[in-house]
């Protein structure tokens, strides 16, 4: 980047919405770039990525109660370049390729040309993948890492990962396998070979088999569905060994989880991710060592934000959907 490219413009293009509702509420417009505060790093966003929380928030669920002003910008994931560091000796100086996630809506969303990011929410980008792939990693990767770590997955354990081919799921399958676990993933028949390539030892086609009828007890369930589909969470308690651990990520997907788990004699916990550069650095090391695969299912331009959101809402995304953020 030349010195001119480090200049932050007075206006930037962003995808925004004026009220909660369908994807069609989103549109592109020019807004004022965010103002970095204290130890924030200013980043030129080259790619962002979609996550289910984005869809929920835009539709009026998820983090929507925290959206205080409209038009609103959402999106947590980003990959790009530092354009302004908070102080001269900061380790991430202008021109440094970085990636990470912003704690939206407390911080500005990343469906935009620029974003201000807390120093502990971003890391140096992996050197072995492009920014378009890197943008797919942060939120989903750190969520999967945290769920596997919370459950203390260990070598020799049997671990069931629901929705194993999805954004969080395809990372969770790999992290559990890297720890030496015997990983069973639920997914569609078309994702069987993909899941096996990630390290799953078994794949259960949820459309043709009831996992609780064909599996012997497991030690851990990484639950990325809850009870929003076919009572997947409740059914999962049936196959946990006594004292086993279920970790659930989709907020509000299973309100009675704690009571049901206690009655079944197993442990259960909700998990919510926090941006953490120390975790992302460890994930980066696995990527650069060739031990972690990142799958991008589709790439959309920011101008196609409505189509991108509709695609994610239709379900069945393998890995992640990424947004290209153009810069004139």
Instruction: Give the fraction of residues assigned to helices.
Output: 25-40%
> Low-confidence runs (pLDDT<50, min 5 residues)?
none
Describe the biggest sheet? 7 strands, mixed
- Mean of pLDDT: 95
Terminus-to-terminus distance: 14 Å
H/E series: EEEHEEEEHHEHEHEHEHEHEHEHE
Rg value? 20 Å
Description of the structure:
The chain has 328 residues and is α/β, with parallel strands linked by helices. The protein has 10 helices and 15 strands. The strands form 3 sheets. Strands 3, 4, 5, 6, 7, 14 and 15 form a 7-stranded mixed beta sheet that branches. It is globular. The relative contact order is 0.15.
Give a short synopsis of this structure.
The protein is 25% helix and 27% strand.
SSE topology sketch:
Blueprint: E1 12-17, E2 26-31, E3 40-49, H1 52-59, E4 77-84, E5 97-101, E6 114-118, E7 122-124, H2 131-134, H3 138-150, E8 158-161, H4 167-178, E9 182-187, H5 192-198, E10 202-205, H6 211-214, E11 218-223, H7 232-237, E12 240-248, H8 257-264, E13 267-270, H9 277-288, E14 296-301, H10 305-313, E15 320-324
Parallel strand pairs: 8-9, 8-11, 9-10, 11-12, 12-13, 14-15
Antiparallel strand pairs: 1-2, 3-4, 3-6, 3-15, 4-5, 5-7
